[in-house]
Write a structure and sequence with these properties.
This protein is an alpha/beta fold and 418 residues long. It contains 9 helices and 15 strands. Strand 14, helix 6 and strand 15 form a beta-alpha-beta unit. Helix 3 crosses helix 9 and helix 5 packs parallel to helix 6. The radius of gyration is 25 Å and the shape is globular.
Length: 418
């Protein structure tokens, strides 16, 4: 495929002749009817083929829709070093050292050159100016853990180069929990709020959140949610921080010496928290204003044997993606995804529509897209780690430019459908 693909149905013009009832006029009438039938059939076939997302040739109109049959999340990765990456790592003003793989020594940069190609349609090419215009006087907010923060960094990088230095800013409030990128000319903000479990927990500090015993208050969300209330587009994620057999649940406050603690099984406590979140959405979200998205679980690649690699290996030294269609590693938990789907279905019955960005399968293939050892190390490496680099390889987060840029292209497609 080229840089952009345009789905066009050619519609011939039909000439309506005068009202004479002669043979010549009848012939023209029959030809006109036949032409109309052929045009209708062509449009029908086009719809049956799933042409849903067509990229406009004009920069101001990035997306049009002619059907609802195309699954944007079902497709394949196509190498495209002409169009990708969509930005340069060094040129992004607000790039994170956790994700800047080239800066920290990665030499193979082919992970930056892959384009996601849905099977039956094309994703629109990202247009930063068009997005900023759509976000004029609005707040786009990502809420969740470090994977959602990576998607936020990606979105900031995607628009960064289109804004002069004097017309953009970055600041943090709420003890560092809320980071706000602002495009001043558009009065638009792209924000990230740290809430890895969505509800309150003892991991809510945006810096010091690694604790041996994770504790959640599954019925408490207002501490975080008050910062989300007025957002125009909300993009949530929460998954990885729940991945432990049992989670300690707190009834009461952290300061209350008589508070009750109880261990609850992973999937059950996950559903309890999502129910609290969904109840908050039902009560507080302005249904005429705020658009809601949930990003599905981001897969990890911590066990190479799952894709036929070495028994003790992981994503370290990986330079090729997984080519087996439909591949799924054990790092993804279908039971938890079913919980999310059930909660979203229940919300629909209550008049709240939340669009799922199902990035799981397309990201499963990208075992080579993680930082591995090519990122800033927040603590000095031990001699044992230096002797065996795979022991400290990051096979959870994603290099930028890279996979999260595609997540944002999917989000971009939906934003222009709103």
């Amino acid at each position: 495929m080229g840089k952009t693909a345009t789905a066009v149905t050619a519609v011939p013009q039909v000439l309506v002749v005068g009202s004479s009832w002669g043979i010549r006029s009848t012939f023209h009438s029959l030809m006109a009817i036949l032409t109309i039938v052929l045009v209708v059939k062509a449009i029908s076939l086009t719809h049956e083929g799933g042409i849903t997302w067509a990229v406009s040739n004009t920069p101001d109109t990035a997306l049009s829709s002619s059907s609802s049959k195309c699954d944007l999340f079902s497709g394949k990765w196509v190498f495209d070093n002409e169009s990708y990456p969509l930005y340069k790592e060094k040129q992004c003003t607000f790039m994170s050292d956790q994700l800047a793989c080239s800066k920290f020594g990665r030499k193979d940069l082919s992970y930056q050159n892959w384009r996601w190609q849905p099977h039956q349609c094309d994703l629109p090419r990202f247009n930063a100016t068009a997005l900023l215009e759509r976000l004029r006087n609005k707040r786009l907010m990502f809420v969740g853990d470090s994977l959602n923060r990576g998607q936020w960094v990606s979105m900031v990088c995607l628009v960064d180069s289109s804004i002069p230095p004097s017309l953009k800013s970055m600041r943090s409030i709420a003890n560092g929990s809320l980071s706000i990128f602002k495009a001043k000319e558009y009065n638009a903000t792209i924000e990230f709020y740290w809430a890895p479990l969505l509800v309150e927990s003892n991991s809510d500090d945006p810096v010091n959140h690694r604790v041996p015993d994770r504790i959640v208050r599954v019925k408490a969300i207002e501490k975080h949610a008050r910062y989300w209330t007025d957002a125009d587009i909300l993009v949530f994620n929460t998954y990885l921080w729940w991945k432990r057999p049992v989670m300690n649940v707190l009834w009461g406050s952290f300061e209350d010496p008589d508070a009750i603690y109880k261990g609850v099984e992973m999937v059950r406590v996950y559903e309890m928290a999502l129910r609290t979140w969904s109840d908050w959405l039902e009560v507080h979200v302005n249904r005429n204003k705020t658009k809601l998205f949930v990003v599905s679980m981001s897969p990890t690649h911590q066990k190479a044997e799952e894709w036929g690699g070495e028994e003790d290996g992981n994503c370290y030294k990986e330079e090729r993606m997984i080519e087996k269609e439909g591949y799924s590693g054990n790092g993804s938990e279908p039971r938890m995804m079913r919980v999310v789907e059930k909660v979203l279905q229940d919300l629909t019955t209550r008049g709240i529509n939340v669009q799922m960005l199902n990035i799981t399968q397309l990201s499963e293939y990208r075992k080579e897209g993680h930082p591995s050892i090519y990122r800033k190390q927040w603590e000095p490496l031990t001699p044992q780690q230096m002797a065996n680099p795979s022991t400290y390889a990051d096979c959870i987060h994603w290099c930028l430019p890279g996979v999260p840029d595609v997540w944002n292209q999917l989000l971009y497609a939906y934003i222009f459908q709103l």
